[in-house]
Specification:
The chain is mostly helical. The protein has two domains: 43-180, no CATH class; 202-311, no CATH class. Helix content is 57%, strand content 3%. Helix 1 runs antiparallel to helix 2 (61-74), helix 9 (183-195) packs antiparallel against helix 10 and helix 14 (269-282) runs antiparallel to helix 15 (286-299).
Amino acid sequence: MAEQLSILGLWERVPEAERVPEPPAPPPAPPPPVDPRQVDLLSGAQVQRSRLEDACATLDGSGLRAAHAELNRRFLAQGWAARAPDWADSLDAFNAAPTPEAMGQRALDLLEPARSLPDAPRTIVRAVQSAATTRAAQALIAAKGPAARLGDGRPAAVLPLLAGDAAHAQALLREACDAHDDAQWCVLWAQAADQAGDAGGGARAWCRACVLDPAVLDAAQVDGEIVLALLDEADELELPEPMGLWLPVLADLHGVVLLEDVALRSTNPAVVALRRYRVHRRELDEAARIAAKRELSRLLPAGLRGRLRAL
């Protein structure tokens, strides 16, 4: 009981007012999605984005969907990945290919990202294409051997090259050309070597292509510095067309490529004569070597005969 002063100046007791307990506080609202611009890279959206990209690189459709859902749940402004479910569908379709041939075709489909990977960032497109073409090429080669072909007749080994993976394609294409002598396949091998920065490998592949078909050489397709230098020399010597006749000869005379390695089936008389000369020289058959050199001198254009003095 409390007391208060009455109007008569006396203290009198008054009942205390009943106290009503305050209602409990409501539970806190869940935190809003985080703006990725307000967090550091080690704990923010970049980590989840990396998981999404890893799922793409391993062609994991289920993992891609899970990473995309988690990214959207935790972070704002992730519109760049809005089509991720469509990307996942394309990965699932690739993985569900019933045969190696079908997988090869679906790998080619993934090389058209506007349809198969709509609105995907370039890094994801490259990762998916590299992984899919490599996996498809390996499946086809495992099933059909190094000379396995795509539906359009190209070697299955060209698939990584189409996706920009020149280094891997170079090794596969060399094996394909060893299994199947074809000038156009050797051109693909040469282009892969050039793009991979292997000028020596490119020279060997170009020479092998020219041995099989001299008309296959197109200077516009050459990127390797060794072959470009040899073609410049051929121009200076005013050698007759087609240049594919003389590229293997020039390469051998300069010690860049040994014709014994690339000219096993040549019908080019100059290539055959030079290869024969090399064989006789190695076997120390002097009379045969001199005869081959004379034959070679007769076959070579005037601009190349001076190079014979060094033999």
